[in-house]
Amino acid sequence: MSKNISDLRDGLFDAIAMLKEGKLTVEQAKAISEMSQVVINSAKVEVDYIRANNGGETPFLESVGNDNLSPGVTGITRHRIAG
Predict the structure, then answer these.
(1) How far apart are CA 5 and CA 21, in angstroms?
(2) CB 54 within 8 A of CB 79
(3) Nearest-10 crossing angle of helices 5-20, 26-52
(4) How far from 56 is each of 2, 17, 25, 26, 63, CA to CA, in Å?
(5) SS3 state of residue 71
(6) DSSP type of residue 61
(7) Helix, strand, or coil here: 79?
(8) Helix (H, G, I), strand (E, B), or coil: what is residue 65?
(9) d(Cα 13, Cα 10) in Å, to the nearest integer?
(10) pLDDT in tens, 35-62
(11) Is the distance from CB of 62 to CB of 4 less than 8 angstroms?
């Protein structure tokens, strides 16, 4: 299993479906929810770190790569204002 925000989202939606189908108990769903919140909180720390260091990326919060661009768009240019 890769470990990024998209996978976390997919897993949570799967857990919701399993809960609705009766394949998960409420206690199991709560445990999944609590663990997911810990992961999300650590991602928030990563974002704060990136902001404090004027940029960068984190593998958990996947950036839009050239493979995911709209048709006709060939790249992304980031303009940063120092201040």
Answers:
(1) 24
(2) no
(3) 160
(4) 20, 35, 40, 39, 10
(5) coil
(6) S
(7) coil
(8) coil
(9) 5
(10) 989 988 988 888 888 888 777 777 666 6
(11) yes
Query: Maximum CA pair distance of the chain?
Result: 54
| pLDDT at residue 63, rounded to an integer | 58
- DSSP letters of 21-53? TTSS-HHHHHHHHHHHHHHHHHHHHHHHHHHHT
Tokens of 79: 């303009």
High-pLDDT (> 90) share of the chain, %: 33
Q: Which of 3, 83, 9 is nearest to 51 (CA)?
A: 83
Domain residue limits, the chain: 5-63
CA gap 1, 70 in Å, rounded:
27
